[in-house]
Amino acid sequence: MFTKILIANRGEIACRVIATAKKMGIATVAVYSDADKDARHVKLADEAVHIGAAPSRESYLLADRIIAAAKQTGAQAVHPGYGFLSENEAFAQRCEDEGIAFIGPKAHSIAAMGDKIASKKLANEAKVNTIPGYNDAIEGAERAVEIAKGIGYPVMIKASAGGGGKGLRVAYNDKEALEGFTACQNEARNSFGDDRIFIEKFVQEPRHIEIQILGDSHGNVIYLNERECSIQRRHQKVIEEAPSPFISEATRKAMGEQAVALAKAVKYQSAGTVEFVVGKDQDFYFLEMNTRLQVEHPVTECITGLDLVELMIRVAAGEKLPLTQADVKRDGWAIECRINAEDPFRNFLPSTGRLVRFQAPEQSMFQADTSKKYGVRVDTGVYEGGEIPMYYDSMIAKLIVHGTDRNDAIAKMRAALNGFVIRGISSNIPFQAALLAHPKFVSGQFNTGFIAEHYAHGFNAEDVPHDDPDFLVALAAYMNRRYRARASGISGQLTGHEVQVGVKFTVVVLGAGGNNTHHDVEVTDYDQANRSSAITLNGKTYRISSTAGLGDIRVQGQCNGMGFTAQVERGTAKNPLALRIAHNGTQIDALVLSPLGARLHQLMPYKAPPDLSKFLLSPMPGLLVDVAVQPGQKVQAGEKLAVIEAMKMENILFAAQDGVVGKVVAGKGESLAVDQVIIEFA
């Protein structure tokens, strides 16, 4: 067994590998860029080596520097994680040539299956059903349009070396095919150093179901059940679960056996994933094979009780698999939510900066410890006070729950999301909460078009209707009573003039554009010892209690005998006196006033925000890679204005209305801040 390994990656997956290595008594070496010098994976590793500048092409994608770091520290093996060089056959071969074990498949397997074009040809030769398409690299955008028309729209344009949604577009017409090819090629070149593109028929209403396989160097290959990954946004997975709520036992077995046969054909060893597109009649087609560990591997670990990273390490050290297909378990139900640094209310724009607050839900399951089950696990590479840089992907953490069945897992996940505190940057937690509450998701009736269908016009606060909105109002009144009780206990008050806490209040829920709503409430039966109150509004009574401290954001307690977790903060950017209440993805800002105070508040004039329609503002931090217009140029609504690169994705900004460019304020190559002016219109 190895005594020291190097992790050629960053973020949560580097931390994940370190956890298993420590369990096995293996020393670890981290590598880091300028942007990651204070990162969590650097702090967790036994040693750390600096490998270059912040952009991945100047650090994490430089095989020479990673090999040099391994030699410098005496690491006997390299675990590549996922992304970066994990599916680069040249890097895997280079490690082997240098006498360093690659904790992953052999280079020939990566070459055969990691390349999407080569893998489709091999699958065809093996008589595996594949989706119709053009599987050779396409030389240009015009040729891409010809091929797309020949296959028939819609088509999927994909980078041969792509993954994680990078270098992938769906085109429904010639214009989208032309633009999609160029965008995919640029993203693939920047993210993977390989700009080959192919096209295949886009199967409508498909489900994305993948099989986890595991092989060793002794010819043994098994499958570890499936993962349902159909909840995707722009081809990036948002929620993953195991098992799938859709396929039958017979389909599961058939998919698993086909995945194993394909893996054996290329003498596959280590962990890998065979992805299938599954039709409504459970007919399935080979999509691609990921010759690496997947982001969503924890859900498989939950239902099988296996540590996939440990098995990868043992296989790389030459050991046989410790189990056969008959030994593979399927226990309970697991769900993973990807918690990303993006603002769902601003069309999911990337959000970077300092994590002012980061409090994950309380964990009862842990990385590298498969003895715990039916609980909550958090995989992350960040910490409170750390930075989310603009150079890498947007993932903050992976939130994983394990339940006895699917309904139990959904309930656990909703509670865990309620308790996940992230401040300083935006996150997609409200969106995740909305998905988990959607009737179609709860019933398991969805496909890969679910988000595009139900959130076609973006995501808004109205998309997260609370099942009992009065509870939020009651919680605001309860917390205000707690604050007032503390004030009434302040020493030094004049006798007969102490702070008096009333019973009747008006909760003013602050709405957009000054459109506020008023709720008359009564707060009675306050019990200081048990920290409980009875709040009555709209003919309903909520008896709420909580032991949370008054400075805590996360508030756990009981309401009418049922447990709840919510988030409460005093003061907002717009109103320092307001209470912000968040629960099940819904958020309100509220003032708790006396009835007289509420009437006086109604007389306050509303101050409208300034008109910024004459400016094109940067919606995110990022690099301005292109300005497509010049001063004096007339532009029409929908016309391309600029391109910003952030978190390895190109974001095109379009004109919202017709106009004339007055001044180009920001220049190509400039690093932009949020709301920085790019263009001023005349």
Question: What key attributes describe this structure?
Answer:
682 residues; alpha+beta; single chain; 5 domains; eight-stranded antiparallel beta barrel; eight-stranded antiparallel sheet; D-amino Acid Aminotransferase, Chain A, domain 1; Rossmann fold; 26% helix; Dna Ligase, domain 1
Secondary structure elements and pairings:
Layout (H helix, E strand, L loop, with lengths): L3 E4 L3 H13 L3 E7 L6 H5 L2 E6 L10 H11 L3 E3 L9 H9 L3 E2 L4 H8 L1 H10 L7 E2 L6 H11 L3 E9 L2 E6 L2 H19 L4 E5 L5 E9 L5 E13 L2 E7 L6 H17 L4 E9 L5 E7 L6 H8 L3 H9 L16 E8 L1 E2 L5 E2 L2 E2 L2 E3 L16 E5 L6 E2 L6 E9 L2 H13 L2 E3 L5 H9 L1 H5 L6 H5 L14 H20 L15 E6 L7 E11 L4 E6 L2 E7 L7 E6 L2 E9 L8 E5 L2 E8 L1 H8 L12 E3 L4 E6 L6 E2 L4 E7 L2 E6 L4 E6 L6 E2 L4 E5 L1
Parallel strand pairs: 1-2, 1-4, 2-3, 4-5
Antiparallel strand pairs: 6-9, 7-8, 7-9, 10-11, 10-13, 11-12, 12-15, 13-14, 15-22, 16-17, 18-21, 19-23, 20-22, 24-25, 24-31, 25-26, 26-27, 27-28, 28-29, 29-30, 30-31, 32-39, 33-35, 33-38, 34-37, 35-36, 37-39
Helix pairs in contact: 4-5, 5-6, 7-8, 12-13
